[in-house]
């Protein structure tokens, strides 16, 4: 049995779907009960038995209760995939400390609490697979993504440190480092500053085939390498190249990214709000981002929308 966190839409939904195809029963978790129900039919079509568990994973009692309920329902726990999160796309001047705290709640603590609870269950059987989905933003500082980057850096450290100790209990921990993927999740990103301009560059990058990866292919790779117990999975050639350059010359990459920031829209001060609440983009932007918009339909991004802040 596999628990997938953040499974109502996007990459989490696709990872759950792939695990179902490989014969795993599923406990799927997200904040939205309606979003989980919208995804349930596609997940059950894989032949898996599906238990939907709506919960706010940033609450330790809720996270631990979800793991306990899933293990009790299925009688075992083999895999846990931590994928819950949010993303805020905004210049620093449009953010406040609460935005950073919100990102840590939704990304870092929403991985730490349930994963540690799952490890406790797995330890009793002496076997298990933990997969923590982070980001290239957790390895390389990225302009206009400060709260997300800070939370993902912390999550990378948690996953890599956990692997060094979990092995003695027969548990592997795989850190997944995706680059850009066409999940359709850009419409649910929280966008601040000059909101429409920030959303335009972000969705354009997420739609370009040479820079972004098909999310279904990413999910298949994540599941295969996670079940194989690999220590790290880096997705997209651009992410692999970026990691190598940053490892050799971190000062150079930070200077280069500072130049990238200067090429992005002039920093505004409007606080973040979901991209889907903004006015419709012009026709040329819609044409440029067609792949990402189609992915949003397939991956239930329209069925589980981020609420307005």
UniProtKB/TrEMBL annotation:
Coiled-coil boundaries: none
Keywords noted in UniProt: NADP, Oxidoreductase
Pfam families with a match to the protein in the record: adh_short (PF00106)
Name of protein: Short-subunit dehydrogenase
Recorded GO CC terms: cytosol
Organism of this sequence: Actinomycetospora cinnamomea
MF annotations from Gene Ontology: oxidoreductase activity
Family: Belongs to the short-chain dehydrogenases/reductases (SDR) family.
Alphabetized SUPFAM superfamilies for the sequence: NAD(P)-binding Rossmann-fold domains
InterPro entries the UniProt entry points to: NAD(P)-bd_dom_sf, Sc_DH/Rdtase_CS, SDR_fam
PROSITE patterns noted in UniProt: ADH_SHORT
């Amino acid at each position: 049995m596999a628990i997938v966190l953040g499974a109502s839409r996007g990459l989490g939904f696709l990872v759950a779907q792939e695990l179902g195809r490989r014969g795993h029963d599923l406990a799927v978790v997200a904040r939205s009960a309606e979003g989980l129900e919208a995804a349930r039919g596609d997940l059950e079509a894989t032949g898996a038995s599906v238990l939907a568990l709506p919960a706010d994973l940033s609450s330790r009692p809720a996270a631990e209760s979800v793991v306990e309920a899933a293990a009790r329902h299925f009688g075992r726990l083999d895999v846990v995939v931590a994928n819950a999160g949010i993303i805020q796309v905004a210049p620093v001047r449009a953010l406040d400390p609460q935005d950073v705290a919100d990102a840590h709640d939704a990304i870092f603590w929403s991985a730490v609490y349930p994963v540690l609870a799952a490890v406790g269950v797995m330890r009793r059987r002496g076997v298990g697979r933990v997969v923590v989905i982070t980001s290239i933003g957790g390895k390389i500082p990225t302009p206009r993504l400060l709260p997300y980057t800070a939370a993902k850096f912390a999550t990378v450290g948690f996953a890599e440190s956990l692997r060094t100790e979990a092995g003695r209990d027969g548990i592997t921990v795989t850190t997944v480092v995706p680059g850009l993927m066409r999940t359709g999740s850009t419409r649910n990103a929280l966008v601040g500053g000059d909101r429409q301009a920030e959303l335009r560059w972000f969705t354009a990058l997420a739609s370009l085939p040479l820079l972004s990866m098909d999310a279904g292919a990413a999910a298949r790779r994540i599941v295969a390498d996670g079940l194989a117990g690999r220590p790290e999975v880096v997705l997209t050639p651009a992410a692999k190249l970026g990691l190598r350059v940053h490892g050799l010359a971190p000062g150079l990459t930070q200077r280069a990214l500072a130049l990238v920031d200067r090429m992005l829209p002039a920093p505004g001060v409007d606080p973040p709000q979901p991209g889907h609440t903004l006015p419709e983009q012009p026709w040329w932007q819609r044409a440029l981002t067609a792949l990402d918009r189609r992915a949003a339909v397939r991956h239930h991004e329209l069925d589980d929308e981020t609420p307005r802040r």
